[in-house]
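dumping this here before i forget
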Amino acid sequence: MWLRKVFPLVCSFFLPAFSVSVSGREGPVLDKGPTLHSLISELSACNGKETFQIAWRIRRQPDWHTYWLHPGDVGVPPSIEWDLPDGVEASPLVFPPPKRVLMGEVAAHGHHGETLFVSKISFSEAFVPTDRLVIRGKAAWLACSQTCLPGFGELELSLPIHSENQKDKSWTGHFLSFQKKLPVPPPEGWQAQAFEDGNKLRMIIPEEPETSTPGIYFFSEGRTVKSDAMQPVRPRNGNWELQMARSAWSNKSETHLRGLLYRKAGWQGDPTLQFYQVSLPLIKR
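structure:
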């Protein structure tokens, strides 16, 4: 939480930003020291009628990270305030699945390398097409390694308006890869339970057919689970028991344990299916 409090105090550490030339349907690249930022589109031209996807693309230097929507014990998630023409709307950002990251020695939830944060652009009858659609946004983020640098910047993307949507092949694979990695609900009949006992939380998870080390971790929504704590897993009556510690910042009135359940080897025998989106009633013990 101390990072949230000092966020406004370290703005003077910013490096100068500048735009870098790009190819494909990508807006100007904003260089902010350890991170690069831009907007990309799945289309090279839009018709001003049908919904399509854009994404905030963040690239990070090695050992630097930004944060997931639910950072854990420390951190602030990226956000963007859109500036759009009348009749144009942007959906809330869809975040990619997180990883465990370290701010100094404190574990949290975030992203390394390159990631997309996807939004859908839609139109109402109030939109009056011209020759171009200009999408702008004021972005804010927190990049951390051994220290933290808060960042702010304006992003822009300009698309020609044609009679038909035109796919941009240079970015199609990026959007498809993003979609394939999104969490999915557990299969029908999958039965897990969550228990709370004071500051201790437990999740009972059905064991997969192969019984190697499960490599399981729970990325909690909100601040229910302490991110800077181990989550040991042990066999229990033919299931797995995941043990967690309640965060000091948690809301004690929570009725459900919500978040992403990660398994390194993947679920259902699929190594690419690593995240279940779960919401389990909290049973008090």
